[in-house]
Amino acid sequence: MMNTFSQVYKDDPITSHHIIPLDFDSTYTVPESHLWSQSDESHQKYQTGAPQDSLIPVIDLCDTNAMDLIGQACETWGVFQVINHGVPLDLVKRVDFEARRFFAMTTHEKRKVLRSPSGSTGYGVPKISSFFAKCMWHEGFTIMGSCVDDAKVLWPHDYQRFCDTMDTYQNQMKLLTRKLLLLILQRFDVTHEEMNWATSTHGSHGALQLNSYPSCPNPSRTLGLAPHTDSLLLTVLNQNGVTGLEILVEGLGWIPVKPVEGAFVVNVGDLLHIFSNAKFPAVYHRAMVNQSKHRISVAYFYGPSIESTLAPLSKNGNPCFRSLPVKEYIELKVRHNDKALSLIRI
Ligand SMILES: O=C(O)CCC(=O)C(=O)O
Ligand SMILES: [Fe+2]
Fold first, then answer.
1. Of the bound ligands, which one is closest to the alpha carbon of residue 246?
2. What is the pLDDT along the chain (346 residues), one digit of tens a residue?
3. Is 340 within the bounds of a domain?
4. For residue 230, how far is its CA from the centre of ligand 2 (angstroms)?
5. Does residue 180 fall inside a structural domain?
6. Closest atom, ligand 1, to C-alpha of 244
7. Atom of ligand 1 nearest to the CA of 209
8. What residue's CA is closest to ligand 1, atom 6?
9. What is the CATH number of the domain that holds 175?
10. What is the pTM (predicted TM-score) of this model?
11. How much distance in Å is there from the Cα of 186 to the middle of ligand 1?
12. Looking at the domain assignment, is residue 26 inside a domain?
């Protein structure tokens, strides 16, 4: 199953300068390749100036109204934060610790697990890099299922702790996304098959993305992660207490999503946008960097089986999108990035 997903990337190899992150060990100024112009749309600041801390709802999963609150948040913003989610804080901390242990390694060590030009896992720059003229102040490590092969290269005598932590976290994330999807979709009159398609763990696809944004000497001219929507159904992100995530809100511009202790940021991805028949927006977001802190974020992406067919919910009115295999949508996204949705619009 994982192999078929990786196949999508194999069919569309990207050139190596779109794979290797900057050597942050020996970079003291921002090179021209990473300097974004002030007029670049992706880099514009948010326009209101007013703090918007309370805009994005923080929802307690144990609240008796959680279902309604989550449904409303998905419809209005396409994003919310969740607390009391049941994922042990200790595990979240261990993932952060292991991620930091990895990114603290030398550039030489990290490049030993470089993502191959046709691969989808390992160390590398953001996958969207090839769509932008400038590079991002970012290095990432992508895990799909077991990461034992890479971990053995990195820590030949001590790889188990890293693997166990990432395995346990992926399992917890899968449970949480499934729980959230069950709540979210109860808003709609979904059929048993439709619910099953979105929440069945059989053949489902998950990926864990460790993001590292080293402290940056010129944060006002750099971007951690350029604006994008996530491709799958739902993303669960841990910002680890450091501000950086911003979402694009119509009429307001870029709004920071303030880190909340113990909370995950949950956002709607393209597949859920399509599945909801555009009732839920797939939120545009980006990551900013800062001068003093090395920011690490951990994103988990959850989607249905790549072999299944994606169709807008039958009860949500006339379909805005044509039905297609999930695999075909992912291929469109890999090739056309933010143009993919318009290519399947009816
Ligand atoms: O680091 C962040 O806050 C955002 C990460 C993100 O959007 C992603 O990994 O897709
Ligand atoms: Fe994202």
1. 1
2. 444 555 554 544 444 456 789 898 888 899 999 999 877 777 776 555 555 667 899 999 999 999 999 999 999 999 999 999 999 999 999 999 999 999 999 999 999 999 988 889 999 999 999 999 999 999 999 999 999 999 999 999 999 999 999 999 999 999 999 999 999 998 888 999 999 999 987 788 899 999 999 999 999 999 999 999 999 999 999 999 999 999 999 888 899 999 999 999 999 999 999 999 999 999 999 999 999 999 999 999 999 999 999 999 988 899 999 999 999 999 999 999 999 999 999 9
3. yes
4. 5
5. yes
6. 3
7. 9
8. 299
9. 2.60.120.330
10. 0.93
11. 27
12. no
Task: Please give, one letter per residue, the 3-state secondary structure of the chain.
Answer: CHHHHHHHHHCCCCCHHHCCCCCHHHCCCCCHHHCCCCCCHHHCCCCCCCCCCCCCCEEECCCCCHHHHHHHHHHHCCEEEEECCCCCHHHHHHHHHHHHHHHCCCHHHHHHHECCCCCCCEEECCHHHHHCCCCCCCEEEEECCCCHHHHHHHCCCCCHHHHHHHHHHHHHHHHHHHHHHHHHHCCCCCCHHHHHHHHCCCCCEEEEEEEEECCCCCHHHCCCEEEECCCCCEEEEECCCCCCEEEEECCCEEEECCCCCCCEEEEECHHHHHHCCCCCCCCCEEECCCCCCCEEEEEEEEECCCCCEECCCCCCCCCCECCEEHHHHHHHHHHHHHHHHHHHEC
In a domain, 39, yes or no: no
Compute the distance from residue 158 Cα to the ligand 2 centre, in Å. Answer: 31
Task: Please confirm, yes or no, whether 115 is among the known catalytic residues.
Answer: no
Ligand number, closest to the Cα atom of 228:
2
Determine the structural domain holding residue 93 and report its residue range: 2-12+53-344
Q: Check pocket membership of 267 for ligand 1, CB cut-off 6 A.
A: no
Measured in angstroms, how far is the CA atom of residue 23 from the centroid of ligand 1? Answer: 21
Number of domains in the chain: 1
Q: Which one of 295, 322, 335, 345 is the catalytic residue?
A: 295
